[in-house]
Amino acid sequence: MTKPLPYIRNNRPAVFDWMVFLCTVSLGFIFPSLGEFINTTTFSYWMLFATVLYTVGAWLKRMPLAYRMDQSPDKNKEIPFLFFLVLGHWVIFLIAGIFSDAAVRNIIGAAPQNPEHMETGVMILGSILLGTLISVLVYYPLKVKEKGGTKSPAFLFRRELVADIFLVASVAILSFVFWEKSIMALFFHVRPSSLGDVCFLFIFLSLAYLVFYLPLRYLFLIEDHFNKQTWQRLFFIFALILTKCLFEVATF
Fold it and tell me: Taking the domains of the chain in order of start, what are their residue ranges?
């Protein structure tokens, strides 16, 4: 196995965080504004693509993660504020399901949604179910299934590598839509006039970043939530995001 692969294997959370950041920034060059992105005919397909990638990636990752956590001395360390992570995760995919509705209808050959009929209610109900199912898939406690025997380390590594690639791509798309071009867009409409306003905005955006990003990062957070380097890295990435946004505001 070449040197880069052991590095990825031993630093999965860090690789995930940095790859999501870089991919999200790259999408910003392709779609400069969220309005342009939403108005494209492919927007709903992007959201469906991100949802499917995330679901498949989470399913693929659970097995190797369960095997690894079963041998970890930190497996019993609880993640704080788990309820809020689950709730945030559910809300994200509820909204993603609503955005994906047009693509799903087009794929199955259904008529476009008519707000005057029951289609809206069906869409919302379907999105609620989607958010619930994906949240259960991700947050249901990990268990090693002995049926079928122990899997080889090579198989588990390849499976998790594919899972991580899928998760990076999906979370980057979701981060671009929900965070990069939605929450961070507040900077373009809120001009702080005092130090108190700056502090409030910083605290608000920090909390919003944690509420959005941590739920999607849960399958990595299980392993590294007790590691001080994890929170230092997340803070540094958030500082880069904030600096990038401040630069954009200054040149706007």
Answer: 4-250
User: CA 250 to CA 252: how far, in whole Å?
Assistant: 6
Per-residue model confidence as pLDDT tens digits over 181-205: 666 665 655 565 666 766 777 777 7
pTM: 0.85
Helix residue ranges per DSSP H, 71-192: 82-99, 101-108, 119-139, 153-174
Tokens for 238, please give them: 């958030």
Under 8 Å CB-to-CB from 24, ≥6 apart: which residues?
Answer: 172, 175, 176, 179, 180
Q: pLDDT tens digit string along 77-107? A: 778 788 999 999 999 999 999 889 888 888 8
Among 169, 28, 147, 51, CA closest to 99: 51
The secondary structure of residue 175, as a DSSP letter, is I
Per-residue exposure over 184-201, b if at least 16 CB sit within 10 Å of its own CB, e if not = bbebeeeeeeeeeeeeeb
Alpha helices in the chain (DSSP H): 4-10, 12-30, 34-38, 43-70, 82-99, 101-108, 119-139, 153-174, 195-216, 218-224, 228-250
Q: What is the largest CA-CA distance in the chain?
A: 63
